[in-house]
Amino acid sequence: MIYDKSKKYLEPAVSDAGDYLRHIRASLPLPRNIIMCPVSMLTKTAANNYAGQYYRFDGADIYDFTSHNCAFVTGFGMGAPAYAMMAECLIGMGAKNIILIGMAGSLQKNLAPGDIVLCEKALRDEGVSSSYIAPSDFAFPSAELNEKIKNVLSAKNINFKYGPSWTNDVLFRETAAEIKTYQSAAILAVEMEAAAAFAIAEHHKINCAAMFAVSDQLANLKWEPHFGAPEIDRAMLKILETCLEVFKK
């Protein structure tokens, strides 16, 4: 039997996040604006400085930033599949605007640890986006949401790079040939969720954008990690504060 998977995005699913939420009897009174961070590096900041109500949902930590008109969702796991599961549930509970934040590896030699990247578009080298939108090289964020982020970054005098990323959810299979190819195509960084995030948002007709702090470097065709460096922590705080400003308006 032959099934044309290239058109899967056109087919209705046999279940959706609403079915799952009813099954686990979960419904949280969350705002329409969501900041999603796969890793838990900002958890203490969220809990100590911004949080109103706290929820534990499906292994993730959710902080309702009541005074900032948004919620912060973290610790749900890295990679496009983990993001998709959590995003579907949040959209099922009413999310309309999502900013994905996290860390990325630089592909360009002029991108240093702690530099901030606002994603212009994401190269689709993962398995999730093809289930949501038609085949193409790139998935795209919300132009309106990206413009708001640019305006806040500029107003706060925060330096950032604007350009494409490479979404690859196979962490230990980044090859020198790929890196050289994407370097020459002016792709700035590699991360694990943005293409899926943009595709899911397009499918559900919501807004999504993505920002990253450079945490490691691949531009020299070897892995050079800088996790834990203070400049990365500072960059992540700037990214979080930018999101709060965007959603406050």
Could you explain how this protein is built, in words?
The chain has 249 residues and is α/β, with parallel strands linked by helices. It has a single domain, classed as Rossmann fold. Helices cover 32% and strands 27% of the residues. The chain has a five-stranded mixed barrel with strand order 5-9-8-6-10. The protein is globular, with a radius of gyration of 17 Å. The N and C termini lie far apart (53 Å). The model has no long low-confidence stretch (mean pLDDT 94).
Question: Can you give keywords for this protein?
Answer:
Rossmann fold, five-stranded mixed beta barrel, 249 residues
Mean pLDDT reading:
94
Give the strand content: 25-35%
Q: What is the CATH topology descriptor? A: Rossmann fold
Strand order of the largest sheet: 5-9-8-6-10
Entry summary:
This protein is α/β, with parallel strands linked by helices. The protein contains seven helices and eleven strands.
